[in-house]
Amino acid sequence: MGGSFISRSLCQTLYTNIPIQSNRLILVMVTSAKSKNRKPRNGGRDFLYRDVADKLRERISSGRYAPNTKLPSLHDLVEEFGVSAISVRRALKDLAYEGLVNGEQGRGVFVKEKGVIHRVLAAKSDRSIGDEIARAGFTPQVKELAHRKIRAPEDVARRLQIKPGTKVFQHEKIAYANAEPVSLHYLFYSEEVAAKIKELIGGTFVFRMLEQAKIKVKESRFEFGAAGLSAQHADLFQLPPGAPLGLIYFTPLNEIRTPILTGLTIFRSDRFLFEVDVPH
What we know:
Strand content: 25-35%
Shape: globular
Low-confidence stretches: 1-26, 35-46
Order of helices and strands: EHEHHHEEEHEHEEHHEHEEE
Number of helices: 9
Largest sheet: 8 strands, antiparallel
Strand order of the largest sheet: 1-2-9-10-11-8-7-6
Mean pLDDT: 80
Number of strands: 12
Distance between the termini: 13 Å
Helix content: 25-40%
Structural class: alpha+beta
């Protein structure tokens, strides 16, 4: 993992429609599909607490556990799931970090009114960002903003390993959670890729889209950053200028480590919690 400072002008080159107001520190992570074959650390199933957390999230998002409802006791959850108290406590801790539940001393754990969208970035994941929005108890929606051909600026060209100025497609869409705009998505890709994804790109998020298009991803490169929202586009996110936004640049690679496409997700930092699954 490494880091570097990227200038504001370079950020504006890639993200021309929402100029940002500050520099950012970029953290780079690479995931490999090989991680899906690693052995569980406990000799059985890996991270049992995740199973408990997933079940409880599902019950919260489905309304089985409504807002302000008290969850079953620690003893009852241990008995129901057949795991240790440590696993249940870890699951509840994760749900609390995500803003789904709140523990009250002497009373128990209660479902909160509004949850944070918990996004997992893993080498092999079967959940899209739309799935994560729904899991947090919101109704996901996607709206296309633009789809055009552009000449690749230097930063996009570097990520796609092509010459600057090469014509590529640029696609933009915005995601909503209960009609509230929470993330903006940019994709850049070649005409060859466009032919494979044209029927999917409007309403499907990127990794689910590639899977449905039968485009195999061998490895993905992620870069993380932060920025302030410009006055020009404050209305788009329904936020005041300068509001904190998170940035994720991503580039999935094929079997021969050639970029399939590259993209940028800009998200409300008060609405998302990211979990990164790093293989060892």
